[in-house]
Write a structure and sequence with these properties.
Elements (H helix, E strand, L loop, with lengths): L1 E5 L3 E7 L14 E7 L1 H11 L4 E8 L2 H13 L2 E8 L5 E7 L5 E6 L8 H10 L3 E7 L4 H12 L5 E4 L9 H6 L2 E2 L3 H8 L6 H14 L3 E5 L5 E4 L4 E4 L12 H14 L4 H15 L12 H15 L1
Parallel strand pairs: 1-4, 1-8, 2-6, 4-5, 8-9, 9-10, 10-11
Antiparallel strand pairs: 2-3, 6-7, 11-12, 12-13
Length: 310
Protein backbone atom coordinates (compact mmCIF):
# COMPACT_ATOMS: atom_id res chain seq x y z
CA UNK A 1 0.00 0.00 0.00
CA UNK A 2 2.77 2.41 -1.02
CA UNK A 3 2.20 6.16 -1.44
CA UNK A 4 4.43 8.10 -3.86
CA UNK A 5 4.77 11.84 -3.17
CA UNK A 6 6.24 14.07 -5.89
CA UNK A 7 7.15 17.71 -5.22
CA UNK A 8 8.99 20.28 -3.12
CA UNK A 9 11.44 19.82 -0.26
CA UNK A 10 12.39 22.91 1.80
CA UNK A 11 13.97 24.05 5.02
CA UNK A 12 11.60 26.34 6.96
CA UNK A 13 12.99 29.37 8.81
CA UNK A 14 10.23 30.34 11.24
CA UNK A 15 9.76 33.53 13.27
CA UNK A 16 6.92 33.81 15.79
CA UNK A 17 5.52 37.36 15.94
CA UNK A 18 2.72 39.18 17.80
CA UNK A 19 1.03 39.97 14.47
CA UNK A 20 1.80 39.51 10.78
CA UNK A 21 3.67 42.54 9.40
CA UNK A 22 1.95 44.91 7.00
CA UNK A 23 3.76 46.40 3.99
CA UNK A 24 6.97 48.11 5.11
CA UNK A 25 6.51 47.13 8.75
CA UNK A 26 9.16 45.43 10.91
CA UNK A 27 7.73 43.29 13.69
CA UNK A 28 9.99 42.08 16.52
CA UNK A 29 9.52 38.35 16.91
CA UNK A 30 9.38 36.27 20.08
CA UNK A 31 11.11 33.11 18.88
CA UNK A 32 13.00 31.70 15.89
CA UNK A 33 13.47 28.07 14.90
CA UNK A 34 14.34 25.96 11.87
CA UNK A 35 12.13 23.08 10.75
CA UNK A 36 12.26 20.71 7.82
CA UNK A 37 9.43 21.37 5.38
CA UNK A 38 8.34 21.70 1.77
CA UNK A 39 4.81 20.62 0.87
CA UNK A 40 5.71 17.26 -0.65
CA UNK A 41 8.26 16.47 2.06
CA UNK A 42 5.68 17.31 4.74
CA UNK A 43 3.13 15.10 3.04
CA UNK A 44 5.58 12.21 2.78
CA UNK A 45 6.44 12.48 6.48
CA UNK A 46 2.73 12.66 7.34
CA UNK A 47 2.20 9.36 5.50
CA UNK A 48 5.25 7.73 7.11
CA UNK A 49 4.17 8.75 10.62
CA UNK A 50 0.91 6.89 10.08
CA UNK A 51 2.86 3.72 9.31
CA UNK A 52 2.26 3.61 5.54
CA UNK A 53 5.25 3.02 3.19
CA UNK A 54 6.08 6.14 1.20
CA UNK A 55 8.53 7.31 -1.47
CA UNK A 56 9.61 10.93 -1.92
CA UNK A 57 10.50 12.24 -5.39
CA UNK A 58 12.23 15.64 -5.57
CA UNK A 59 15.52 17.54 -5.45
CA UNK A 60 17.71 19.21 -2.81
CA UNK A 61 20.99 21.11 -2.98
CA UNK A 62 24.34 19.67 -1.95
CA UNK A 63 24.47 22.20 0.92
CA UNK A 64 24.05 21.61 4.64
CA UNK A 65 20.32 22.27 4.34
CA UNK A 66 20.01 19.49 1.79
CA UNK A 67 21.79 17.04 4.05
CA UNK A 68 19.49 17.92 6.96
CA UNK A 69 16.41 17.58 4.76
CA UNK A 70 17.41 14.14 3.46
CA UNK A 71 18.39 12.83 6.88
CA UNK A 72 15.12 13.99 8.38
CA UNK A 73 13.06 12.27 5.68
CA UNK A 74 14.99 9.06 6.19
CA UNK A 75 14.62 9.21 9.98
CA UNK A 76 10.87 9.59 9.51
CA UNK A 77 10.83 6.40 7.44
CA UNK A 78 10.52 7.95 3.99
CA UNK A 79 12.30 6.22 1.10
CA UNK A 80 14.47 8.93 -0.53
CA UNK A 81 15.97 6.95 -3.40
CA UNK A 82 14.01 9.23 -5.75
CA UNK A 83 15.50 12.44 -4.33
CA UNK A 84 18.29 14.04 -6.41
CA UNK A 85 21.20 15.95 -4.79
CA UNK A 86 22.09 18.95 -6.98
CA UNK A 87 25.60 20.39 -6.69
CA UNK A 88 24.68 23.48 -8.74
CA UNK A 89 21.81 24.84 -6.65
CA UNK A 90 20.90 25.65 -3.07
CA UNK A 91 18.14 23.71 -1.33
CA UNK A 92 14.67 25.21 -1.18
CA UNK A 93 14.10 27.60 1.71
CA UNK A 94 10.84 28.99 3.12
CA UNK A 95 10.76 32.07 5.34
CA UNK A 96 7.67 31.85 7.57
CA UNK A 97 6.19 34.30 10.07
CA UNK A 98 3.51 32.99 12.43
CA UNK A 99 1.31 35.21 14.62
CA UNK A 100 -0.29 34.54 18.00
CA UNK A 101 -3.46 33.18 16.40
CA UNK A 102 -1.50 30.64 14.36
CA UNK A 103 -1.97 32.47 11.06
CA UNK A 104 1.09 32.64 8.82
CA UNK A 105 2.71 34.30 5.82
CA UNK A 106 5.29 32.42 3.75
CA UNK A 107 7.92 33.42 1.18
CA UNK A 108 9.90 30.69 -0.61
CA UNK A 109 13.20 30.57 -2.50
CA UNK A 110 12.56 27.41 -4.51
CA UNK A 111 16.21 26.66 -5.33
CA UNK A 112 16.65 23.01 -6.32
CA UNK A 113 12.88 22.55 -6.48
CA UNK A 114 12.87 24.68 -9.65
CA UNK A 115 15.20 22.17 -11.31
CA UNK A 116 13.02 19.08 -10.85
CA UNK A 117 12.82 17.65 -14.36
CA UNK A 118 13.65 14.48 -16.31
CA UNK A 119 15.95 12.92 -13.69
CA UNK A 120 13.14 12.90 -11.15
CA UNK A 121 10.56 11.89 -13.76
CA UNK A 122 12.61 8.79 -14.58
CA UNK A 123 12.86 7.92 -10.86
CA UNK A 124 9.12 8.47 -10.57
CA UNK A 125 8.40 6.18 -13.52
CA UNK A 126 10.39 3.36 -11.92
CA UNK A 127 8.42 3.64 -8.67
CA UNK A 128 4.94 4.03 -10.22
CA UNK A 129 4.30 0.24 -10.47
CA UNK A 130 4.61 0.00 -6.67
CA UNK A 131 2.19 2.86 -6.00
CA UNK A 132 -1.27 2.50 -4.50
CA UNK A 133 -1.69 6.30 -4.41
CA UNK A 134 0.21 9.13 -6.11
CA UNK A 135 0.23 12.58 -4.48
CA UNK A 136 1.54 15.61 -6.40
CA UNK A 137 1.69 19.35 -5.58
CA UNK A 138 2.72 22.50 -7.44
CA UNK A 139 5.96 23.47 -5.69
CA UNK A 140 7.96 22.25 -8.71
CA UNK A 141 7.80 23.43 -12.36
CA UNK A 142 4.35 23.04 -13.90
CA UNK A 143 5.67 21.27 -17.05
CA UNK A 144 7.21 18.62 -14.77
CA UNK A 145 3.92 18.26 -12.89
CA UNK A 146 2.03 17.81 -16.15
CA UNK A 147 4.47 15.20 -17.45
CA UNK A 148 4.37 13.33 -14.13
CA UNK A 149 0.57 13.26 -14.27
CA UNK A 150 0.62 11.94 -17.85
CA UNK A 151 3.06 9.17 -16.93
CA UNK A 152 1.09 8.32 -13.79
CA UNK A 153 -2.25 8.11 -15.59
CA UNK A 154 -1.48 4.71 -17.10
CA UNK A 155 -0.90 3.25 -13.62
CA UNK A 156 -4.63 3.17 -12.85
CA UNK A 157 -3.96 4.09 -9.22
CA UNK A 158 -5.64 7.17 -7.65
CA UNK A 159 -3.85 10.47 -8.34
CA UNK A 160 -4.31 13.27 -5.82
CA UNK A 161 -3.35 16.85 -6.67
CA UNK A 162 -2.78 19.44 -3.96
CA UNK A 163 -2.96 22.61 -6.11
CA UNK A 164 -0.56 24.63 -4.00
CA UNK A 165 1.14 27.00 -4.23
CA UNK A 166 -2.03 28.18 -6.00
CA UNK A 167 -2.04 29.51 -9.55
CA UNK A 168 -4.85 31.51 -11.13
CA UNK A 169 -4.96 29.42 -14.28
CA UNK A 170 -4.02 25.77 -14.77
CA UNK A 171 -4.18 23.76 -18.00
CA UNK A 172 -7.56 22.09 -18.51
CA UNK A 173 -5.69 18.85 -19.19
CA UNK A 174 -4.42 18.86 -15.61
CA UNK A 175 -7.91 18.54 -14.12
CA UNK A 176 -8.69 15.59 -16.37
CA UNK A 177 -5.53 13.75 -15.29
CA UNK A 178 -6.24 13.80 -11.55
CA UNK A 179 -8.73 11.78 -9.53
CA UNK A 180 -8.94 14.02 -6.46
CA UNK A 181 -8.10 17.72 -6.17
CA UNK A 182 -7.70 19.23 -2.68
CA UNK A 183 -7.51 23.05 -2.62
CA UNK A 184 -8.04 25.07 0.54
CA UNK A 185 -10.48 27.98 0.37
CA UNK A 186 -7.83 30.48 -0.80
CA UNK A 187 -6.51 28.15 -3.49
CA UNK A 188 -10.03 27.27 -4.61
CA UNK A 189 -10.82 30.99 -4.95
CA UNK A 190 -7.81 31.45 -7.23
CA UNK A 191 -8.70 28.40 -9.32
CA UNK A 192 -12.33 29.33 -9.91
CA UNK A 193 -12.09 33.14 -10.02
CA UNK A 194 -14.54 33.94 -7.22
CA UNK A 195 -14.33 34.03 -3.43
CA UNK A 196 -14.76 30.69 -1.67
CA UNK A 197 -15.57 31.40 1.97
CA UNK A 198 -18.14 28.84 3.11
CA UNK A 199 -20.24 25.82 2.22
CA UNK A 200 -22.37 27.54 -0.43
CA UNK A 201 -19.45 28.98 -2.38
CA UNK A 202 -17.47 25.74 -1.88
CA UNK A 203 -20.30 23.83 -3.54
CA UNK A 204 -20.25 26.28 -6.45
CA UNK A 205 -16.46 25.95 -6.72
CA UNK A 206 -16.66 22.15 -6.67
CA UNK A 207 -19.19 22.27 -9.51
CA UNK A 208 -16.81 24.46 -11.52
CA UNK A 209 -13.88 22.10 -10.90
CA UNK A 210 -15.98 19.11 -11.94
CA UNK A 211 -16.80 20.93 -15.17
CA UNK A 212 -13.06 21.41 -15.73
CA UNK A 213 -12.59 17.64 -15.44
CA UNK A 214 -11.82 16.93 -11.77
CA UNK A 215 -13.50 13.70 -10.63
CA UNK A 216 -13.56 14.28 -6.87
CA UNK A 217 -13.13 17.61 -5.08
CA UNK A 218 -12.20 18.33 -1.47
CA UNK A 219 -12.14 21.99 -0.40
CA UNK A 220 -10.72 22.53 3.07
CA UNK A 221 -12.28 25.52 4.80
CA UNK A 222 -10.13 25.93 7.92
CA UNK A 223 -12.39 26.61 10.91
CA UNK A 224 -15.44 25.62 8.80
CA UNK A 225 -14.28 22.07 8.12
CA UNK A 226 -14.13 20.42 4.69
CA UNK A 227 -16.56 20.28 1.77
CA UNK A 228 -16.36 17.19 -0.43
CA UNK A 229 -17.96 16.30 -3.74
CA UNK A 230 -17.83 13.22 -5.94
CA UNK A 231 -19.92 14.84 -8.67
CA UNK A 232 -22.84 12.62 -7.66
CA UNK A 233 -23.02 13.41 -3.95
CA UNK A 234 -21.72 16.10 -1.59
CA UNK A 235 -20.90 15.98 2.09
CA UNK A 236 -19.45 18.35 4.65
CA UNK A 237 -17.23 17.42 7.58
CA UNK A 238 -17.42 19.73 10.56
CA UNK A 239 -14.15 21.05 11.98
CA UNK A 240 -12.66 19.26 14.98
CA UNK A 241 -12.42 21.73 17.90
CA UNK A 242 -8.77 22.15 18.92
CA UNK A 243 -6.56 24.94 20.23
CA UNK A 244 -4.78 26.46 17.23
CA UNK A 245 -1.07 27.14 17.70
CA UNK A 246 0.26 27.17 14.12
CA UNK A 247 -1.55 26.38 10.86
CA UNK A 248 1.65 25.64 8.89
CA UNK A 249 1.44 22.15 7.34
CA UNK A 250 -2.21 21.57 8.31
CA UNK A 251 -3.05 21.03 4.64
CA UNK A 252 -0.05 18.75 4.20
CA UNK A 253 -1.14 16.66 7.18
CA UNK A 254 -4.62 16.45 5.61
CA UNK A 255 -3.30 15.33 2.22
CA UNK A 256 -0.84 12.87 3.72
CA UNK A 257 -3.49 11.18 5.85
CA UNK A 258 -6.00 11.22 2.97
CA UNK A 259 -3.44 9.44 0.77
CA UNK A 260 -2.53 6.96 3.50
CA UNK A 261 -6.18 6.05 4.02
CA UNK A 262 -6.84 5.51 0.32
CA UNK A 263 -3.67 3.39 0.08
CA UNK A 264 -5.00 1.34 2.99
CA UNK A 265 -8.25 0.70 1.11
CA UNK A 266 -10.54 3.06 3.01
CA UNK A 267 -13.63 4.58 1.43
CA UNK A 268 -13.53 8.15 0.12
CA UNK A 269 -15.51 9.50 3.08
CA UNK A 270 -13.39 7.68 5.65
CA UNK A 271 -10.24 8.90 3.90
CA UNK A 272 -11.48 12.49 4.22
CA UNK A 273 -12.12 11.87 7.92
CA UNK A 274 -8.50 10.69 8.22
CA UNK A 275 -7.42 13.95 6.59
CA UNK A 276 -9.63 16.02 8.86
CA UNK A 277 -8.19 14.37 11.98
CA UNK A 278 -4.56 14.79 10.87
CA UNK A 279 -5.12 18.44 9.93
CA UNK A 280 -6.70 19.19 13.29
CA UNK A 281 -3.83 17.62 15.20
CA UNK A 282 -1.21 19.44 13.11
CA UNK A 283 -2.44 22.91 14.10
CA UNK A 284 -1.95 22.17 17.81
CA UNK A 285 1.86 22.26 17.51
CA UNK A 286 4.38 24.69 15.95
CA UNK A 287 6.41 24.00 12.83
CA UNK A 288 5.73 21.90 9.74
CA UNK A 289 7.01 18.33 10.09
CA UNK A 290 7.34 18.54 13.91
CA UNK A 291 3.57 19.16 14.08
CA UNK A 292 2.57 16.10 12.03
CA UNK A 293 0.76 13.56 14.23
CA UNK A 294 2.17 10.21 15.29
CA UNK A 295 0.12 7.10 14.58
CA UNK A 296 -0.90 6.54 18.23
CA UNK A 297 -2.10 10.12 18.70
CA UNK A 298 -3.84 10.04 15.33
CA UNK A 299 -5.64 6.73 15.91
CA UNK A 300 -7.01 7.88 19.26
CA UNK A 301 -8.70 10.94 17.77
CA UNK A 302 -9.70 9.05 14.60
CA UNK A 303 -11.66 6.47 16.61
CA UNK A 304 -13.56 9.27 18.33
CA UNK A 305 -14.41 10.95 15.03
CA UNK A 306 -15.50 7.72 13.36
CA UNK A 307 -17.92 7.14 16.23
CA UNK A 308 -19.32 10.65 15.79
CA UNK A 309 -19.72 10.26 12.03
CA UNK A 310 -21.35 6.85 12.35
Amino acid sequence: MTVVVFGSINLDLVVEVPHLPTRGETVIGNRFFCATGGKAANQAVAVAKLGVPVYSIGRVGSDNFGQVLLENLQLAGVDTTGVTIDSQSHSGVASIVVDQRGDNAIACAAGANNLVRETELKAFEKIIPQAKVILIELGIPLPTVMEALRRAKSSNCPIILDPAPARSSLPEELYKLVDIITPNEIEASQLVGFTVDGITTARQAASFLHQMGAKKVIITLGSQGAFCSTGEEDFWLKPIPVKVVDTVAAGDAFNGALSAAIAAGKSFKEAVIWGNVAGALAVTKPGAQPSLPTRDCFMELLEQQLEIEN
